[in-house]
Amino acid sequence: MEHYLEIKHIDKFFGKKQILKDVSLEVNSGEVFGFLGPNGAGKSTTIKMIVGLLCIDRGEILVCGENIEKHFEKAMANIGAIVENPETYNGLSGMINLQMAARMRDGVTQERIDEVVELVGLTKRIHDKVKKYSLGMKQRLGLAQTLLHRPKVLILDEPTNGLDPAGIKQLRDILKHLAHEEGVAVIVSSHLMSEMELMCDRVGIISKGEILMVKTLEELKSVSRLNTVLFKYRLKDTEKAKEVFAGFEYADFVLCEQDRIEIRVPAEGMEDKLEQLNEALVKAGCGLLEISIPEERHLEDVFLELTGEGGEQIA
Amino acid sequence: MHKLVYNELIKILKSGKNFILIMILLLLSIVFSFAASAEWESESRWYSPGGSTHSLYYDQLKMELDMGLIDPEENPVRYARTRLFVDVFEKVKLQAGDDMTRLIWTDQVLKDTLLSSPNYQIAYYAETSPYGISNADDYRWRNNLYEMGEISEAPQVTPELKAKAQAGIEAAIQMVKEGAWRSYYEEQIKKLDDPEQIQYYQDMLAHDDIPNGGSSRDFQWRRILVEGDLRLRELARYRILNDIETYVSYIPEPSVLSLGMTVNLTDTPSEGVSEFWPRLARSLNALIVAALISVVMAAGSIAKEYSTGTIKFLLINPKKRMKIFWSKYIAVLFYSVCMTALCFVFCFLMTGFFAGGYDLNAVFIDVCRGEVHSSSPWLYIWVSMSDQIVSILISTTLAFTLSAVCRNNGVAVGVGIAAELVSQFLLVLGTRVLPVLTRAFPYANIKLTSIRYGAGILPYQSFTGALLNLAIYVGILLWIARDAFVRSEV
């Protein structure tokens, strides 16, 4: 697997304030990389530095082995990007926008433009002025612009913004296809964790200008501060059940109301412990009605746990 | 690179604003063309189109004649000259056009007369105060001694007198260069009769009251000396007292004295003179609209990209920012040229429409420093347009620079338009207060044609100097703009 994008120890200052601290990342060909972080964490700053909109105060960024500062034109030829919003000339039609984008690159033919328009599903409206487009259509047009020259690195900032569910699925399929079939390195930043979960192969979490971790989705989900699993019980006699659970040290109460009890059980040796607990409940005659299957940990939980920024002030 | 320029042109040409601006240009071209024609057909049609000063002079002389103020017996030469002026004025409808150094007509007979015989010699005017805007400006006329005469009748100035005048002017220039203000006072004292005024200058001398830089008194003494005003007044007085025609002979180098000495002679349609070309020249005042449109577009060129966010789209392409910057500037200039050309075409068509025909075979007669030349009228139009084009270039570059530096469309449009509109006013103010510093002001140098003909509005102006000044300004502005654009963080 080849590193298409390498970010090596970059720092960024706005005035005296340090926005990025020693950020390093690698994105490989053929993967969809999710770039996560709360507002103001430095996601957009990092992306802007990758595409040369901001200068790099320290460190270096390589795109397909080319230094973005020293060989700007060569490096940028491999990148397709939407930064923050899809920026298009609203007074012009979608097609003219694409033709203008094509003129900025080498070797993009009219056939290629038509092909990309077809791919993003804009064929019917491509000759309308962009100001008549919905946000979702602008996203599609923005995506089309970035795909024209078959970039090796595709960077999309909040690409699902404004797309309808069908559009989101379509985008997901396109991105997965590009990564897995055509070997493109796709970098997606988003706040929609559920989306990222479905889309990404690997995620990096950034907070307050620092990369907290970079892991595959599977690795990330298994990471937990408490390392426990949550079980939900429905019982006839919750009082008696509470007494039973109190007898087991490892059973940790989370919730107890009417006919419901939620407990956390350590992930280690979970099955044996569950067996003991259930046996005890039945023996005590608590009237066990239901036990839920442990819920899978969502990316969102991990994200909030790691960044610790559920509703906090922006750093 | 050409693809980038093409992209920029698409952005400009396909924007909705462009259509509205071209419509405005069309509309105002019609208005200007119509106004140029309407003016012609008014009652005072042979008077100066720029104002009434020219006709006032005619009125004054006519009145002098009618009321018998000049006695032909007592003052035969003066009478003859006045008579001639009035006759010529009435006959060929003497007219000061936009550009006082030009005349146009197609009447072959009149032309031949002019070229072959000295009888209808062109009027000369010796300019006593060159601090006016050189084209179609009342100021110039008001301050001119306007002379007209038959050459055969005019006694020639003697070589001694000529040499004396020349030496006097050179001495005056030297005085200013050396800052010899005392000499100026002494000169004044020698010349004046009024004891009060003599006392005034004697006091100044006694108290070492040096004229300060920038004060009106300082301006006065330098002006009078540098421009040879003193000498000319003396000579003018001498001329009037002695009825001697001396003007042609002792006009020194124009760059020093900036003397104009030709007048527009244009006949009315009834006498077969082209009415199309002078009208067209006046219609071309509409070029100011082309200038404003260019400024508006230049101002938006970079600022709009920032305000709409499309700058990000533009900069994340594999093109160096420098290339993008130059493509924008080239596109803006190209657009300015197109607007100027379009304005010209509109004015050309509309003037022909209002004038009732296109007089394409007219001959352009250029009278300059006493010599008559004939050439193409296209040249005449080009000359009257070229200064305007230089002005457009400067204002457009200024707006473009502000667009890159401030990234604010409003500021760039505002300052660009203000520069185009207020510069002339500032210039006149500057020439009166600080003539030497004003020379460094780019708008003082845009009238390249006048400067080349030695009719610059400031002392010591030269064509190369003016060109260099403009080139330096454009260079500095573009350097600042390029730096701001290339370094900007988005």
What does this structure look like?
The complex is a heterodimer of chains A (315) and B (490). With 315 residues, chain A is α/β, with parallel strands linked by helices. Chain A folds into 2 domains: 220 residues, Rossmann fold, CATH 3.40.50.300; 65 residues, Alpha-Beta Plaits, CATH 3.30.70.1710. Helices cover 35% and strands 28% of the residues of chain A. Chain A is built from 11 helices and 14 strands. In chain A, strands 6-7-8-3-9-10 form a 6-stranded mixed sheet, sandwiched between helices. In chain A, strands 2-1-4-5 form a 4-stranded antiparallel sheet. In chain A, strands 12-13-11-14 form a 4-stranded antiparallel sheet, covered by helices on one side. In chain A, strand 9 and strand 10 form a beta hairpin. Chain A is elongated, with a radius of gyration of 25 Å. The C terminus of chain A is likely disordered. Chain B has 490 residues and is mainly alpha-helical. Chain B has a domain of 242 residues. Chain B is built from 21 helices and 5 strands. In chain B, the strands form 2 sheets. Chain B has a 3-stranded antiparallel sheet, sandwiched between helices. A two-stranded antiparallel sheet of chain B has the order 2-3. Chain B is flat. The chains are: A alpha/beta (315), B mainly alpha (490).
Topology readout:
The complex is a heterodimer of chains A (315) and B (490).
Chain A: E1 3-14, E2 17-28, E3 32-36, H1 43-50, E4 58-63, E5 66-67, H2 72-76, E6 79-82, H3 94-103, H4 110-120, H5 135-147, E7 153-157, H6 165-180, E8 185-189, H7 193-199, E9 202-207, E10 210-216, H8 217-222, E11 228-235, H9 238-246, E12 252-257, E13 260-266, H10 270-284, E14 288-291, H11 299-307
Parallel strand pairs in A: 3-8, 3-9, 6-7, 7-8
Antiparallel strand pairs in A: 1-2, 1-4, 4-5, 9-10, 11-13, 11-14, 12-13
Helix pairs in contact in A: 4-5, 9-10
Chain B: H1 2-13, H2 16-40, H3 53-66, H4 76-92, E1 102-105, H5 108-116, E2 124-127, H6 138-142, E3 144-147, H7 159-178, H8 181-191, H9 195-206, H10 216-226, H11 229-242, H12 254-257, H13 276-283, H14 287-308, H15 310-315, H16 321-355, E4 363-368, E5 371-375, H17 377-406, H18 409-433, H19 435-438, H20 448-452, H21 463-487
Antiparallel strand pairs in B: 1-4, 2-3, 4-5
Helix pairs in contact in B: 1-16, 2-13, 2-14, 2-16, 3-4, 7-10, 8-9, 13-16, 14-16, 14-17, 14-18, 16-17, 17-18, 17-21
